[in-house]
Write the structure tokens for this entry.
Amino acid sequence: MQAVIGLLVMMLGASYGLETYCDGRQDGAQCFGPLGGTVVLQLIDRALQTHRYKLYKSTNKTTIILNVINNKIVDNVIQSRSSFNLSDGTFRLNNLSRTDSDEYHFDIIDRREIENRALQLTVQAPVSSVRLASECLSQGEKRVSCSSGGGDSPQYSWTLDGRSLTDTELLSVYTEPNSITLKQHVSGAVACSVRNNVSRFCGFTFIKCTSNETQISQWVFAANNMLCIEPTTPPTTISESSTVADHSLLVCGVRAAVVVFALIGIAVYFAWKKNKYKKAEGSAYRPEREHQDESVVMVEM
């Protein structure tokens, strides 16, 4: 059953990175493109009639890939799978292969001035799937492993209920980035995100281990789910007990001071009230009250 559910996660997954964008207007730009996909290179803002543009690989400078003169495309040796947009200055390269990985140079010629920029294009195989496997250990800990289908240089990250895991929730720090062990009291939706420079996949599972080592897990597909968003900063925790104790004493002291001042205020009020009535009884007449309503002091605690 576990294998079937894992296969469903692989089949239902969607790769983010079949088309990438890179700003090549700065010299030395590092660009990445998906194997078999498309990369859009921003070479200039827009083509000008007074300029001439050339794009070529550094391994073979004699072969010009793109040549633009007077705002017209004169040569494009890979026209079958590439295009250059004169209005926005983008070069689109489709159906990327490993041989497209190279250093490219882009020359801008304007009569006397010549500008040469270089960019490095690296083609990577995108991550195609993600699979999670979980197990209950003898003391109720939960071990979760994550693996990806294909992909060059995959990187793994973990979240719990949409936030980053803390050291207090992990049993120990593992050198393997695709495997974690959670402590006994930790439970929730554990998500694993696998990514590289051209794609990203995420999957998560609910896992709970009982005292008799029974594993209760539920696979959920990660697409369009908030649990597979970028991890947020974990809540701030106070690790030192002395800091907590000092804070508690301070709060109790403030509350006690408020109570004392409130009692003093009430005692003064009733003493003034009693003195007022005694004076009124000894008088031959009772003066009229200017205000019918008496003010009451309220203390918010």
